[in-house]
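Final report, Chapter 2: Outcomes

The project's central promise was a pipeline that accepts a single protein chain and returns its three-dimensional structure in a standardized token representation, suitable for archiving and comparison. That pipeline is now operational. To close this chapter, we reproduce one record exactly as it appears in the project archive, with the input sequence first and the structure output second.
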Amino acid sequence: MATAIEVSNVNKQFVLRHTRSLKEALVWLIRGRKGDLSQKFFALNDVCLSVEQGESVALLGFNGSGKSTLLKHISGVMTPDSGTVLTRGLVAGLIEVGAGFHHDLTGRDNVYLNGAILGMSEAQINERFDSIVSFSEIGEFIDTEVKFYSSGMYLRLAFSVAVHTDPEVFLVDEILAVGDEPFQKKCIAKIKELAAEGRTLVVVSHDLDLVPKICSRGIILEKGRIAFDGPVEEAISQLRAQNR
């Protein structure tokens, strides 16, 4: 089976700038600005993983563990400080609600804009437009500027555009928590449909009841490192045990 995602020795550091006391700042200046008033931390620390085509993987862990940062590297939104991330085929999904949407444009214009960003041609968008609007359930508001949309409407349109790109790799980051329950169920059904078609899924979620309905493999991240990689039920059991 072909490899869909290959993450090799990926490192990513961020800088935390702390507000120091006036005394500490003066000492720092007197010493000729020696030493660093900021603090660095590894968001990802030598992360390696391989995802086969057609696998459904959940990235799990507590806040600050590196899940969303890893997903952004897979999507290409971020680049690593060192290491490599390789993907095969069209990668699409929802990393942030409405990423790629322009607030001052209508829903219709944003379908074309976001579709183009996600790799669809104008002809493909034309062909799928009615289906995108139908799935999103915002038909009468499609010619309204999206700055007037509720977060739920925003989500429905963004999700609908993403799933209609026909991606080989589909990424989802906590987005399902935003919509109302009926639409969440509709999204889950669509994600299961993509999985059944052999698409590769990578999902970030804190909803441990939802994850096993979508994913078969669970990867737990702790402080930027992979702490567990195996069956999703075992990953969930470990997290629940840690949370007691």
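Archive annotation: Helices lie at 22-30, 67-75, 107-117, 122-136, 151-163, 181-196, 211-214, 232-242.
This record, like all others produced under the grant, will remain available to the consortium after the project formally closes.
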